[in-house]
Automatic annotation (TrEMBL):
Domain Methanolan biosynthesis EpsI per the UniProt entry, residue ranges: 319-487
Annotated compartments: Cell membrane
E.C. number: 3.4.22.-
UniProt keyword annotation of ATP-binding present: no
Top-level enzyme category: hydrolase
Major location (coarse): membrane
Keywords attached to this entry: Cell membrane, Hydrolase, Membrane, Protease, Transmembrane, Transmembrane helix
One Pfam family named in its UniProt record: Exosortase_EpsH
Tagged with keyword Transit peptide: no
Positions of transmembrane segments: 21-39, 51-67, 79-103, 109-142, 193-212, 219-239, 259-280
Topology with respect to the bilayer: Multi-pass membrane protein
Protein name listed in UniProt: Exosortase A
GO MF annotation terms: hydrolase activity
């Protein structure tokens, strides 16, 4: 079925479009209401987190992009499209998987994708093709970037130390810490440059679409918008270190906040725009929608053969959404049986000692039903601190591998330095606190027969359990040790990695040991 051009309207909304737009508004309102927790969480981040304040502009930008296309869009036929239900269904499945994994960012991506998929479902494939970029730009409604912080910290630290050496300043790098004559500098999370990178990515995508027609020029401009902010952040960090050598750390810190917030990156934006200006190839006044291409696309002619009555997609959409919410609601009520109390067991060759670290270290396990924290030592001088968390289920507010959970508690005395050495069935991190005190932490997750240091593998196992409506507990074990020589830790004489390895060897299979604390019996005839 080919596209049918409608007579242009000099003003107002074409009559043929009124019912479809009302239907779309109703579907959007229903989806936002049904998945309100995701939208509320996103709105909270848009408003309260400086990293995501730029997202407050995204709805207005999407509206402007659609408005630029309205004259051409009104020449297209809007009609409900049966296969559009598959797109909405895929977004709902993604939401279910994210909810089962306790992964908020996935559920938020799915919530935005539902609104995107509703457009071809209610208005048809040809109209969706006409607003393809605005629909894709809606992806920037999802707050993303926190997962890039450790990588950006590391990159910034390496750029900084390279420039410091070029500047003939004696310095040493230790993970994300840089030692200079003016003092110790940390490339903290706030200094990673993630705020500017995510904002520049959204800006670059908009500018690349509006100002360029050639896809190669668009790709090149996007590359600038990603690479230059990262490099510029390294230069900014170097400038702070360099200024500290001259005027001191306090003065350099004040200059850094002023320059970083108001001057430096404004200059970077200007330079990126200046670099791309001469390559802009979209003629001034050119329409944002190539109506002829959309009307003449043969694949859209074929797709419009699946146009259906609006009531069919509306009822189908409602049924799919309610089924997804119901499935998750049932899974959320499942939880494993928990013992009334748990204790850290005796370990052959080790004795329990009072847990009195000079710098307090206590991992976070929000929502855990039981928590344990203690210290073990052996006759050879090995000393380890052991944290154990036991969850009856994984879900909202109960995420063993969630952001901010585990060995490094946000806003504590400890900072992440770098990944630690490889260790079987564990993820290792080196943490640093004032003194300086170095701590190696090895994290192992356990559910069912799985013992792993991979948060991804844990999430997949949790998803499988909830999909199959299985009641299984989840455990987290963090064995850590302080490196010898730390001030105030006189009893510690053995390297941290050696101490952790010795303790894990004494416990036997780490998964079985974790099960024993939770009083879970499993058949281990085939090994673990």
């Amino acid at each position: 079925m080919g596209a049918q051009a409608l007579p242009a309207r000099a003003g107002g909304l074409p009559e043929e479009w009124r019912a479809p737009l009302v239907q779309l508004a109703a579907v959007w309102a229903g989806l936002i209401a049904l998945f309100w927790p995701e939208w509320r969480a996103m709105a909270h981040q848009w408003w309260d987190s400086s990293t995501y304040n730029h997202i407050l502009m995204v709805p207005a930008i999407v509206g402007w992009l659609v408005a630029q296309r309205l004259p051409g869009l009104f020449a297209l036929r809007a009609a409900a499209w049966g296969p559009g239900l598959a797109g909405l269904g895929a977004a709902l499945v993604l939401w279910v998987l994210g909810a089962f994994a306790g992964f908020a960012q996935v559920t938020q991506i799915a919530a935005v994708a539902m609104l995107m998929m509703a457009v071809p479902m209610v208005l048809g494939p040809r109209v969706a093709a006409g607003v393809l970029f605005p629909l894709c730009y809606m992806a920037f409604l999802v707050p993303f970037g926190d997962e890039l912080v450790p990588l950006l910290q590391t990159i910034t630290a390496h750029i900084t130390i390279a420039l410091v050496h070029v500047s003939a300043i004696p310095a040493q790098i230790d993970g994300v810490f840089i030692h200079t004559p003016a003092g110790l500098f940390e490339v903290a999370e706030a200094c990673s440059g993630v705020k500017f990178l995510v904002a520049m990515t959204a800006f670059g995508a908009l500018c690349a679409h509006v100002c360029f027609l050639d896809w190669r020029r668009r790709a090149g401009f996007m590359a600038l918008c990603v690479v230059v902010p990262v490099l510029a952040n390294g230069v900014r960090a170097w400038g702070t270190v360099y200024a500290a050598q001259i005027w001191g750390r306090e003065v350099a810190g004040g200059i850094d906040h002023i320059i970083y917030g108001w001057v430096f990156f404004a200059i970077v934006i200007g330079l990126i725009l200046a670099a791309g200006w001469r390559f802009f190839d979209r003629p001034a006044g050119a329409p944002m929608l190539d109506l002829g291409a959309v009307q003449g696309a043969r694949v859209l002619d074929w797709a419009e053969g699946f146009v259906v009555a609006p009531t069919r997609v509306l009822v189908g959409a409602g049924a799919l959404a309610l089924a997804a919410v119901g499935w998750v609601a049932v899974a959320d009520r499942l939880s494993a049986d928990m013992p009334d109390a748990i204790t850290l067991p005796d370990v052959p060759g080790w004795r329990r000692e009072e847990y009195t670290p000079r710098i307090w270290w206590e991992p976070r396990a929000t929502g855990a039903d039981h928590r344990l924290l203690g210290r073990y030592a052996d006759a050879q001088g090995h000393v380890v601190d052991v944290f154990y968390g036991l969850y009856a289920a994984q879900g909202p507010g109960k995420k063993a591998g969630g952001f901010g959970e585990g060995a490094l508690t946000p806003d504590s005395s400890w900072s992440w330095r770098s990944p630690g050495p490889d260790m079987a069935d564990a993820k290792t991190d080196l943490l640093l606190a004032g003194g300086p005190t170095m701590r190696l932490a090895a994290t192992t997750y356990r559910t069912g027969d799985l013992a792993t240091g991979s948060n991804l593998r844990l999430k997949l196992a949790n998803i499988t359990d909830r999909l199959l409506l299985r009641r299984r507990s989840t455990m987290v074990l963090i064995v850590s040790a302080v490196e010898p020589g730390a001030r105030g830790e006189g009893g510690i004489t053995r390297p941290a990695a050696e101490s952790i390895a010795a303790f894990r060897q004494s416990t036997g299979l780490i998964g079985n040991w974790m099960d024993g604390i939770a009083r879970i019996g499993h058949d281990r005839a085939t090994g673990d």
